[in-house]
Structure to design on (193 residues):
């Protein structure tokens, strides 16, 4: 092992490793939709271990958090189907690590409007429950109390709304030839065979 590599490894053990628990906890709270926290931590360690020079790092703890944040955001951006909670999380984050391109801004706004449109198209009770549960974060019990329904109904409607939105996104994103014809049966859309 070269002297430079040995210095980086020693630095990781001394300055980065002690902060792992704090970074894990923060990732669980802030990036629930990003994927497996273990994967994010592992990728972050790989990137830090690959550094050839560490002299420019004045705040190792902050650098570790920033590196983990970058990895988590990359995972969110790469996700093919983004959970609805992720839309709220992405809006709440300051994603400006670098200035986004005009195309990226326009694309992001279109995607957000598409999801908002899909939510608006849900049946009224389903939409209200979905918005309260998934966007506003209102507890299931409180929604049931406000609407005068059971918690089971709230859970079923939230799941129904999420499934409808994910199905619509999948259908819209499928290549033209792969889209099967669909028909309405008992208020549900089903694929014809």
């Amino acid at each position: 092992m070269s002297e430079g590599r040995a210095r980086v490894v020693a630095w990781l053990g001394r300055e980065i490793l002690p902060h792992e628990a704090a970074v894990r906890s923060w990732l669980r709270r802030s990036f629930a939709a990003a994927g497996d926290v273990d994967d994010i931590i592992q990728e972050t360690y790989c990137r830090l271990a690959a550094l050839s020079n560490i002299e420019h790092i004045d705040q190792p703890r902050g650098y570790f958090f920033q590196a983990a944040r970058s990895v988590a955001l990359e995972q969110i951006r790469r996700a093919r189907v983004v959970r609805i909670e992720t839309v709220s999380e992405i809006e709440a984050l300051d994603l400006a690590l670098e200035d986004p391109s005009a195309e990226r801004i326009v694309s992001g706004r279109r995607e957000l409007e598409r999801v908002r449109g899909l939510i608006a198209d849900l049946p009224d009770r389903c939409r209200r429950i979905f918005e309260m549960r998934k966007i506003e974060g209102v507890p299931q019990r409180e929604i049931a109390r406000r609407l005068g329904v059971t918690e089971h109904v709230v859970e079923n409607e939230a799941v129904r709304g999420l499934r409808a939105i994910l199905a619509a996104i999948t259908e819209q994103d499928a290549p033209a030839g792969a889209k099967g014809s669909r028909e309405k049966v008992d208020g549900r859309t089903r694929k014809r065979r």
